[in-house]
Amino acid sequence: MKASPASIAELPVVVIGAGPSGLAAAAHLLEQGLEPLVLEAESQVGASIREWGHIKLFSPWRYNVDAAAARLLDPTGWESPRATALPTGAELVHDYLEPLANTPELAGRIRTDHRVLAISRGERDKTHVQARTGEPFVLRVAHAGEVLQLHARAVIDASGTWGTPNPLGAAGLPALGEERPEVARRLLGSLPDVLGVDADRLSGRHILVVGAGHSAVNTLLNLAALRRRDHATTISWAIRGESAERVYGGGDADQLPARGALGQRLRRLVEEGEITLHTGAEVHALAVVEPSAASQPGDSHSHAPQSDDDAVTAALEVSFADGRRTRADYLAAATGFRPQLQMLRELRIELDPAVESPRRLATLIDPEFHSCGTVQAHGADVLAHPEEGFFLAGMKSYGRAPTFLLATGYEQVRSIAAHLAGADAAARSLNLPETGVCSGVSAPDPDAGVEAGSGAHAAGVDAPGADGAQSCGAPASDAAQSCSSFSPEPVGAGAAARIGASTGVLHGRAG
Ligand SMILES: Cc1cc2nc3c(=O)[nH]c(=O)nc-3n(C[C@H](O)[C@H](O)[C@H](O)COP(=O)(O)OP(=O)(O)OC[C@H]3O[C@@H](n4cnc5c(N)ncnc54)[C@H](O)[C@@H]3O)c2cc1C
C-alpha cells in the first residue's frame, strides 16, 4: 500500500550517526521545523571521536561548534569554550557533544545502540524507480539483538568513516592474512594512544608503523618517547615511497618552523637508528609466527601458533611485495579511511568512482587541488543523489578524500535541512581561512619528558598531498603556503609546539 503524503510528512528525518555532523544536522532540522531522529550505533554520542580522544584537534573551537547547536546550548548555561583553543577529541565530546545531546530538544531524539544496517525505499527494490517515488525510506536497524524496521521521510547519513579504515594491502585490498583473527589482534589501528592507555602494552615491544601521513609521523614520535622510557621498545617504519624526504619536510627552510622541527626530529631518529625505516615497502602479506621459526621465502602463513594471545611468544611477520620480510609484535596501520557503502546498496546514489563522494562534490574536495581551507561551501544541490531525500553529510560525504572539516560539514547540514524544509538551501560562504584552519599537530618534544597519561600528548591525522606529511591539504609543493600554525596551546608540562596537518592523505593513501 502506498503511503499518503500526509503520513509521510509525519515521519522523522532520520540522521545516521551522533557525531558532530549528525548532531548539528538534528539541530538544523529542528530550527527548520522538521522532526529529527538520530540513530547512533554505539552506546554514546561522539563514539568515533572518543576513540581518538587523546588527539588534539588541529582546528580551534571557533570552527568546531555548529551555529544551530550553539543556539540550543546557549540557554542551558553552557560555557562556550575559548574560541582560539584547540580541544582534544575527548574535550570535543565532553565540552560540546555531550551537552548538546543532553539539551531538552535533542535528548529524546537520539537513540543510541541503534546501528543502521541497510536503507531502502517503499516496498520495491531500487530498480522500480517510479513505484518508489515519494515513498518513505525504510531502515533496517540493529538494536538489542533484534533487527527493527523504521521509516523516514528523508535520511541524512552522517555515519563518518572511522569504522572503515583502509586495509594495509597496497592495491586497496587487505594484505594476505590481514583479516585472520590472530593477525588482527596485533593491528593497533590508525592512532594508538602510545603514551596513554596503550603504553603498557607497547612498552618494550617491537612496533611497526605503516604509512607516511601525520598519523604515522605522530605515532612514530610518540613511540620514540616511549622508547626513551623503556629502551627495549623497538620501532620500525614502512613507507611505500623510495624516500622519506617528503615526510621530513623542509627542515630549517620550512615556513612552519615547528613543522620543520618535527620532520627533522623524525629524520634524526631514523639516522640515529632509533627507528628502522623500510622504504619501497608495500605490504603484501601478514602472518603470526613463532619468533624462533626461520623465515622462508614464500612461507608467509606457516608456523601459526595454536595459542595467539601473547605477542611476546608469537611475532607478526610482514611480507613486502618485493619479497623482503620483517617481524614485529604490533603494527600501527596509518593508512586512511573509506566510507561504508554496503548499507546504501538499495539507494540510487551517485558517487565519484575514485573518491567515493557524491559525484559533484568530488571536484571540490580533491586533495590534489584543495586544502581543507579552500574547499568551497557546498550544500544540498551538490550533495544530492538521484534518490531524492537522501544525503551523505559530514566526514562520510568526503568519501576517501581526507580534507573534511567540521565547519564544512556544518554548512552541509544547514543547507540540507533548509532544502528538506523547502526553504532557501543555497550554500553560504564558510568564511574559513585558507591557512590556519587545517593546522595544529602535536607530538611529544623529546626533551620535554612527556609522561603517560598526561593528556593530549599525541596528535595528528594523515596529511593530504602526496605522502602527506609536509602538506596541510594542499599539493606538497604548495604546502607551506596553505598551512599555518595556530598559537601553540599548552597541554600541560612538556607540551610541544603544534604544527600543521590535516585529515588523511591523497585519496586516502597514507604511505
Ligand atoms: C584524529 C582526527 C583528528 C581530526 N581533527 C579535526 C580537526 O581538528 N578539525 C576538523 O574540522 N576536523 C577534524 N577531523 C575530521 C572530522 O571533523 C572528524 O572525523 C569528525 O569526527 C567527523 O564528524 P562526523 O560527525 O562526520 O563523523 P564521526 O565523528 O565519525 O561520527 C559518526 C558517528 O556515526 C556512528 N555510526 C557509524 N556507523 C553507523 C551506523 N551504521 N548506524 C548508526 N550510527 C553509525 C558512529 O558511531 C559515530 O558516532 C579529524 C579527524 C580525525 C580522525
Layout: helices, strands, pairs:
Elements: H1 5-9, E1 13-16, H2 20-31, E2 36-39, H3 47-51, E3 55-56, H4 67-73, H5 89-101, H6 104-107, E4 110-111, E5 115-121, H7 129-132, E6 137-143, E7 146-152, E8 154-157, H8 181-184, H9 199-202, E9 206-210, H10 214-229, E10 234-238, H11 245-248, H12 257-271, E11 275-278, E12 283-289, E13 315-320, E14 325-328, E15 330-333, H13 359-365, H14 380-383, E16 390-392, H15 406-420, E17 439-441, E18 458-459, H16 479-482, E19 499-500
Parallel strand pairs: 1-2, 1-8, 2-4, 3-18, 8-16, 9-10, 9-15, 10-11
Antiparallel strand pairs: 5-6, 6-7, 12-13, 13-14, 17-19
Helix pairs in contact: 2-4, 2-15, 10-12
Bound molecules: flavin-adenine dinucleotide.
The site of flavin-adenine dinucleotide has 36 residues, from helix 2, helix 3, strand 5 and helix 15.
Describe the overall structure.
By secondary structure, this protein is α/β, with parallel strands linked by helices. The chain has a domain at 170-332: FAD/NAD(P)-binding domain (3-Layer(bba) Sandwich), CATH 3.50.50.60. It has 16 helices and 19 strands. The protein has helices spanning 5-9, 20-31, 47-51, 67-73, 89-101, 104-107, 129-132, 181-184, 199-202, 214-229, 245-248, 257-271, 359-365, 380-383, 406-420, 479-482, and strands spanning 13-16, 36-39, 55-56, 110-111, 115-121, 137-143, 146-152, 154-157, 206-210, 234-238, 275-278, 283-289, 315-320, 325-328, 330-333, 390-392, 439-441, 458-459, 499-500. A five-stranded parallel β-sheet has the order 4-2-1-8-16, covered by helices on one side. Strand 1, helix 2 (20-31) and strand 2 form a beta-alpha-beta unit. Helix 2 (20-31) crosses helix 4 (67-73), helix 2 (20-31) packs parallel to helix 15 (406-420) and helix 10 crosses helix 12 (257-271). The radius of gyration is 23 Å and the shape is globular. Flavin-adenine dinucleotide (FAD) is lined by residues 16-22, 39-42, 47-49, 52, 55, 57-59, 115-116, 158-160, 162-163, 191, 343, 394-395, 404-406, 409, 461, 503.
